[in-house]
Each structure stands twice: as structure tokens, then as C-alpha cells.
Amino acid sequence: MTVSRTETYPLVTEADIVVVRREAKIWAAQLGFGLVDQTKLVTACSELARNTIVYGGGGTMIMEALDVPPRKGLRLIFEDHGPGIADLDLALTDGYTSGGGMGLGLTGARRLCNEFDIVTAPGAGTKVTVARWK
Ligand SMILES: Nc1ncnc2c1ncn2[C@@H]1O[C@H](COP(=O)(O)OP(=O)(O)OP(=O)(O)O)[C@@H](O)[C@H]1O
Ligand SMILES: [Mg+2]
């Protein structure tokens, strides 16, 4: 697999979410994703970016354009050094929130992407990786 392009974005403020949403849509369009797929990626991006800021205390998103001929993909990696997630099964339950949200961000992002992975531990931060293939 070739990573044909990569970029790192800060995730600290609300304005940073606007930037990564816009960039994800642009990259997805350039890779040839249709509007529906672009919207799925942007929605997942938005939810995970918000979690990084709200629960992770801020962090970064790495975006990677993937090339596995004849397929193209977009991978998003969200990383923070916040408190981590103590009970991952609980966090991945529809409707569970520790912060007065809807509890649908993580599960929604998982459904909207083809690949979904979380590495986290209490005190060790959180790394969420998603990818969608065309
Ligand atoms: N980066 C993170 N660091 C620490 N905890 C997290 C992180 N991301 C998610 N969580 C935990 O997982 C829970 C579920 O996240 P999820 O995005 O599904 O729901 P939510 O953010 O609470 O609500 P919603 O996204 O629907 O507004 C959060 O309430 C939080 O406890
Ligand atoms: Mg959320």
C-alpha cells in the first residue's frame, strides 16, 4: 500500500474542526469519492475531531491518501494525549456519553467507514484510525 499524500492538522479549537471537515471533503473529492461517500467521511471526521477536542483536550489529525491499485482510500488518524478511555466497550455503545452528548459519535464514525480502530488506555491518550475505500 502506498500513502500518496499525508498532512497533519492541529485540533484545538472549533475553527480547527471547520478546517479538517473542509480538507477531508477536498481530499475525498480529489480521490474520486462521490458526494455520498464524501459526506460519510466528512461526518466521521467531524465527530472524531470533536471528541479529540472535547474529551482528549486537543490533539492532531493526520490525513493520508491511500493508493492500492485499483483502489483509492482516505485514512484519518485522530490522536490526543488526554485521559484515554477506561471502558472502550461502553464508549462504543450507542447512546453512551460521559459528557452530555448524544453518544453517537464513535459508533456513527464506525458505521460510516470501512476500517475503524481505537488504541487507548487510561492516562495514555487516545488514537482513533478510520479509513474509507472507494
Ligand atoms: N478522545 C477521547 N478521549 C477520551 N474519551 C473519549 C474520547 N472520544 C470519546 N470518548 C468517550 O467516549 C464517549 C462516547 O463518545 P461519542 O462520540 O460516541 O459520544 P459523545 O461525544 O459523548 O456524544 P456525541 O458525539 O453523540 O455528541 C464519550 O462520551 C467519552 O466518554
Ligand atoms: Mg462525540
How are the elements arranged and paired?
Layout: E1 2-11, H1 14-30, H2 35-54, E2 59-68, E3 71-80, H3 88-91, H4 105-112, E4 115-120, E5 126-133
Antiparallel strand pairs: 1-2, 2-3, 3-5, 4-5
Task: Tag the structure with descriptive keywords.
globular, 134 residues, binds magnesium ion, Heat Shock Protein 90, single chain, alpha+beta, 4 helices, binds adenosine-5'-triphosphate, 5-stranded antiparallel sheet
- For the report, how would you describe the main beta sheet? 5 strands, antiparallel
Based on DSSP secondary structure assignment, what is the total number of beta strands? Answer: 5
Count of helical regions = 4
- pLDDT averaged residue by residue: 97
Report on the structure:
37% of the residues lie in helices and 33% in strands. The chain is an alpha+beta fold. The protein has one domain (2-133): Heat Shock Protein 90 (2-Layer Sandwich). Strands 1-2-3-5-4 form a five-stranded antiparallel sheet, with helices on one face. Magnesium ion (MG) binds at residues 47, 50-51, 101, 105.
Brief sketch in words of this structure:
It contains four helices and five strands. The chain is α+β, with helices and mostly antiparallel strands. The protein has a single domain, classed as 2-Layer Sandwich (Heat Shock Protein 90), CATH 3.30.565.
